[in-house]
């Protein structure tokens, strides 16, 4: 599975962005997709994940109620809708894939895309 994240950019605090993670491969629907982020000088952290069928989602406490993860298996794409953005959301966002079940643990993901930069100005 090859993944490509897009949709990052510069936005003011309180604004919104939608990230996309486009995947290649016929078995995309078998994979859970996770979003992780890494801010300058900080470790990578979990943001959100969605199971292979989309019935199960997980969120970090820091984004719960503001971010929504969804998937369109017909388009081989997972989305991360980010609302009410805060300066502390500034980071490079990565999407990753693992079989079946969503997980907040980055070590369980087998495939990673390149990152997309999100910058939230105050």
Structure write-up:
The chain has 122 residues and is an all-beta fold. The chain has no helices and eleven strands. It has strands spanning 2-6, 9-12, 17-24, 31-38, 45-50, 57-59, 67-72, 77-82, 91-99, 111-112, 116-121. The strands form two sheets. Strands 2, 4, 5, 6, 9, 10 and 11 form a seven-stranded mixed β-sheet that branches. The chain has a four-stranded antiparallel β-sheet with strand order 1-3-8-7, with no helix packed on it. Strand 7 and strand 8 (77-82) form a beta hairpin. It is globular, with a radius of gyration of 13 Å. 34% of the residues are buried. The mean pLDDT is 96.
Helix content: under 10%
User: What integer is the average pLDDT?
Assistant: 96
User: Which descriptor suits the 3D outline?
Assistant: globular
Gyration radius over CA:
13 Å
- Secondary structure: number of strands: 11
Order of helices and strands: EEEEEEEEEEE
Question: How many angstroms separate the termini?
Answer: 37 Å
Largest beta-sheet details: 7 strands, mixed
Structural class: mainly beta
Q: Helix segment count?
A: 0
Low-confidence stretches: none
Range of strand content: over 45%
Quaternary class: single chain
């Amino acid at each position: 599975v090859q993944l490509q994240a897009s949709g990052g950019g510069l936005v003011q605090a309180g604004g919104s962005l939608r990230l996309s993670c486009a995947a290649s491969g016929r078995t995309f629907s078998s994979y859970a997709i996770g979003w992780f982020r890494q801010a300058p000088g900080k470790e990578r952290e979990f943001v959100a994940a969605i199971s292979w069928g989309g019935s199960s989602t997980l969120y970090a406490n820091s984004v719960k109620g503001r971010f929504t993860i969804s998937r369109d298996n017909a388009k081989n794409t997972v989305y991360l809708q980010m609302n009410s953005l805060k300066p502390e959301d500034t980071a490079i966002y990565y999407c990753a894939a693992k079989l079946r079940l969503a997980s907040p643990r980055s070590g369980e993901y087998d495939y990673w895309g390149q990152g997309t930069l999100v910058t939230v100005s105050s």
